[in-house]
Amino acid sequence: MFNRRNLVTLIVGTGMLIVGTGMLVTAGFAQPKMQHHNDGHNLLGPELHQNGKHEVGKIGLNAVVAEVSNDKVVGMSVGDLPARKVKSNKKLASGDAGTVKIAANGPIRLAQVEVYYGYCFETGIDEYCYWYPATDVVVTDVWVPY
What we know:
Order of helices and strands: HEEEHEEEEEEE
Radius of gyration: 23 Å
Mean pLDDT: 79
Number of helices: 2
Number of strands: 10
Strand order of the largest sheet: 3-9-8-7-10
C-alpha cells in the first residue's frame, strides 16, 4: 500500500520529478564532466620557439589555438569557449618534459615543488585542459587552484 511517505521516498530516491504533463524530468543532479588532460608543451613542440598563434588540437569543430610570444604561452582560445586559467602541483598530463630519473642508496628528499599551469575549456559535457610547466607560461593574472 502506498502512503505519502513511501511516495515521497520513491520520488526522491529515483531523482525524478513528475511534471503536470505526465513527463518525467531529472531533478537536476550534476553529471560528472569527462576530463581530457593534454600536455601542451609536447603538443606545441618546436612551435614554442616561434611567436604567433599555433593550432595544438581540436575540440569538436573548433581549433585549439595557443598564442606564443618570446618562447612563452601567453594565452589560449577555442572558438567562443571561455578559458579558465588553473594551476596544480600534480602532473595531470602525460609526457616526460622535465622529468628527472634518480638512483639512490637511501631515502631522498626533493625540496622543489613543480607547478603546472593549464588552460581549461568546458563544452558543457566535457572539460579539456592543456597543461604547461611554469617555464612555458607567462604568469601575470590570477590562476585558480585545480
